[in-house]
Amino acid sequence: MTYWTRPRLSSQDMLGQEHKQTFPNILKKGYLEIRKNHDSYWQSCYAELSPYNLNFYSLDSSGNQNLYATYQLSHFQSISVLGNLEARMVDTVLYDNSQLQLKAESPWEALDWGQKLWEVVHAAVPNYMARQEEKANSPGLGHHVDCAQNHCLQKKSSGLLASPVLDSPKQYQNILKSGTLYRLTVQNNWKAFTFVLSKAYLMAFHPGKLDEDPLLSYNVDVCLAVQTDNLDGCDSCFQVIFPQDVLRLRAETRQRAQEWMEALKTAANAARSSEQNLQVTLRNKPKDQLGGHELRKNKRQSVTTSFLSILTTLSLERGLTAQSFKCAGCQRPIGLSNGKAKVCNYSGWYYCSSCHVDDSFLIPARIVHNWDTSKYKVSKQAKEFLEYVYEEPLIDIQQENPMLYLHAEPLATVARLRQRLKSLRAYLFSCRAAVAEDLRRRIFPREYLLQQIHLYSLADLQQVIEGKLAPFLGKVIKFATAHVYSCSLCSQKGFICEICNNGEILYPFEDISTSRCESCGSVFHSECKEKSVPCPRCVRRELQKKQKSFWRQLNVDESLEEACTMFELSYQNT
């Protein structure tokens, strides 16, 4: 027996043209999968929730929507959200004890559908709560005993949000809104993400992968503005502006975009109010108490997260309009008659005179892209962040701007020294343990100078500019070179130039007089390698890869000398 009802799909006017029935005041809509019980199959459809009905539309091969079924909200007896964090669905029971199960594209979307459905049913049926309490207190209804376990919506809508996420990470609690939004990528393409808005964070996940770590995460309390974005005349686009990024998002409909904008503004205002109240409360506490320590720790983590993503990105001034004429630090009004706005040369954002006191600092992006070694004025937050990461090796010159070595001679000199040191490291680390420990002690705590020759910290770049890093590396190289020449083990690990074969022992760290093959690592005299002849070792390797049939064609057994002369290199007599 089925409970589906099939109302008339469309009406016709005098010309015989069909008109789809419209449902005003749509509270929520989207694509769902539905089934009537555990034994039936899931069916994809398009759903619309109005104040009095829940309507489902079937999709034909052309993507057209035809009204499939309508459920009156007054017929719903119970609404439950079943499952765990990874798989969740909405289970409902109708007046005739039949079931209707809904499954959304994500657990958060299913949770949102359950909450919305419960709120609308509660508003449409005044005695809904009384009926649910009566059923819950009735001893004869055994199937309601585990109502709390299945998160039945019998208390209030906030209970739906609290109970299902007890087993979830802390940042996933207090979910305010979730759903699919499209983000404009740097390739100027719209890409779908599942966004989850909580009281503290705005997170973006791959669709259907909420069990993984979020791809994007933003602190709601530092949100600067939420505004419409009239991109290409689209009325469902909006911007969410943070100090470190500007999210350009698009919803399915204009109403959906407005819902997200209102939710984001409400969450940001609530988070800022809560933070201000917390700071006022903690102001009278002793500084050595745990609360003040945690507050300072959280503040530093927030600043680090905000500025790390733009470490090697040249700042771009967006104007006070993008910040709604508010300070990026304390949110006070700035500009025009509200006080002078000072720009931070690290982030490009504007600050008030209290949050920007004209501190000067090196800008990593200007060094990497322009070899600009001047100091520029930055905000207090930027200065704190740059001091925090000052000695962290976060800048890869080869990845960010490999052409910089051609234009910055001091940096190219340091790169050559680090290459020599990397070659020496292979010798000393294969020698006695005491020797390797001595090398580590001389370079500590910057062992990355030995391994990743293109990785720099801001402190390293400042030493390059001041001419201090090259002499430091030179001293370490002098120690390591002296050991290799004098050690009975390391000195035996040299190379013979296979081009001239003069018997001289060569070492790869002698970069002035030697040259190394990038493929096999063989070492030659620089003069011999400049003749542009192929590497003998690489040639031998290629010949060894030939199949036996290749050698049979040459009749190697009958004429060995003739076969060998076919591969004789042109530099044998040099």
Descriptive tags:
7-stranded antiparallel β-sheet; PH-domain like; alpha+beta; 5 domains; elongated; 18 helices; 26 strands; disordered C terminus; 574 residues; Herpes Virus-1
What layout of secondary structure does this protein have?
Layout: E1 10-12, E2 18-20, E3 28-35, E4 43-49, E5 53-59, E6 65-72, E7 76-83, E8 88-94, E9 99-103, H1 107-124, H2 128-137, H3 157-162, E10 175-184, E11 190-198, E12 201-205, E13 216-219, E14 225-228, E15 237-241, E16 246-250, H4 254-282, H5 290-308, E17 342-343, E18 350-351, E19 359-362, H6 364-370, E20 375-378, H7 380-388, E21 395-396, H8 397-400, H9 404-407, H10 409-428, H11 433-443, H12 448-451, E22 455-456, H13 458-466, H14 469-486, E23 495-496, E24 505-506, E25 514-516, E26 523-525, H15 526-529, H16 536-544, H17 548-553, H18 560-565
Antiparallel strand pairs: 1-2, 3-4, 3-9, 4-5, 5-6, 7-8, 8-9, 10-11, 10-16, 11-12, 12-13, 14-15, 15-16, 17-18, 19-20, 21-22, 23-24, 25-26
